[in-house]
Every structure is written in C-alpha cells, then in structure tokens.
Amino acid sequence: xxxxxxxxxxxxxxxxxxxxxxxxxxxxxxxxxxxxxxxxxxxxxxxxxxxxxxxxxxxxxxxxxxxxxxxxxxxxxxxxxxxxxxxxxxxxxxxxxxxxxxxxxxxxxxxxxxxxxxxxxxxxxxxxxxxxxxxxxxxxxxxxxxxxxxxxxxxxxxxxxxxxxxxxxxxxxxxxxxxxxxxxxxxxxxxxxxxxxxxxxxxxxxxxxxxxxxxxxxxxxxxxxxxxxxxxxxxxxxxxxxxxxxxxxxxxxxxxxxxxxxxxxxxxxxxxxxx
Length: 275
Description:
Number of helices: 9
Strand order of the largest sheet: 1-2
C-alpha cells in the first residue's frame, strides 16, 4: 500500500513541475501580470464550479493521487491540482502568448492523452464521464478565456464583478478545504456528516457566501465589511443549529472570515483600481 501511494503521486508531481515551468515562462512574458493573475484565478473559479457539478454532485470521475489516505479528501485534492493548476496555467499560457486555434486543439489533445495515460496508470478513473467530453470542454474553455481577457481589457462591469466573485470563491474553497484537511471543520447532512456530503454541502454554501462577499466588498465601506462578517456568522450559526456544520473550535470561524475578507479587499483593489 505504501509503495502504491508513492507511485500514484509521481504523475501528478511530474505534471505539476511541467506546468510550473509554463507558469514561470508565462508570467515572465506577461505584459500585464495583474490582469493575468485575475484571469488565472477567474478560470480556476469557473473550473471549481464545473468540478463541483461533475465530481461532487454527479460523481463523473475520480482522482487517485494518493497524497491523502481518506478517499474523498484525496479525490478533491487531485481536483484542486487539475482545476487550480494544470488547466488554468495552460489556458493562461495560450492567452498570454496569443496562440491560435491550432495550439488550442493541440493542448486539448494533450489533456486527452494525459487523461488516457492516468487511466492506464490507475491514478484517475472515469465513471460516466468520457474522454471526448474532456476534449470538448477544455477546447471551449480556452476560447472563453481569450474572450474573458478581452472583456477585462475593456473593463466590462459584469465581467469585473464575476471575476471578483471567482477570486473570492477560489480563496474560500481552498481555505475551507485546508481547515477540513486539518479536521477543524466538517459539513454534511445529519447525523453523520460524511466526507462525501462535506463536498456537496460545503462548496454550495461557499458559493453563496462568496457571492455575498463580492457584493459587500464592492461597496468598500466599513459598514459593508461589518455586514459581510455578520452575514458569514449568521450563515454558519444557521448551519450549526441545523447540524449541517460541525466546527471543532468556534474561534476558527472568525479566522476564516478574516482571511476571506482581507483577500477580497485585495482582489477588489486589483480588479477595480489597478487593472
């Protein structure tokens, strides 16, 4: 078992190293790193919503990186590698270098081959999902990323707000995942609050709270910040009362709120003032 866990990690680590080099090269060549940072996190946010539907709700495929013993935590950890690192970096690389449709098709096929290889190696498994879906959705997302970049350049208000929401929800999801990994917080349905339920209930309320945080943050006042904090507190109070959330130490909640609120104000300045 220990040997198998070591083997499963290597494909993810090797692929991660390749995309880290791509990221460094992309940022080095970038003419506007702040906008490209927003673009990267926005793509990741869209990818997180996609993974929530396909992986958490519909159980379309399973990641098996074997970084974590608990199966559901390990599955989501693999999803984070894919949707926060591999695919968004590739999309950013294509957009920054202004690469055309032929390169988009090439990288879509590249991810198809990676998926096939991972299936063969037993580090990833399709259920009802099909590899051809991977090709189609990734190819479409590359074109959407170029479109989003143009809209950010043109400072479209709706695009700016959605980008703010996506940056917040990526931060929220990663922060809560870390606290869940440390066994500090758990979501689910009474009475068991299983890990499978956690990744259904937790992200749903994460999306809701990220949207409300984006709304309050855009106002950029002390009152809106306090209302944002109270909104988070009331939602958690409701979840705890209904036994949909279990928190090991209540002091962890203000810590999570503080991380999200500070990050959201940084994102607001980045999107509305510095782009």
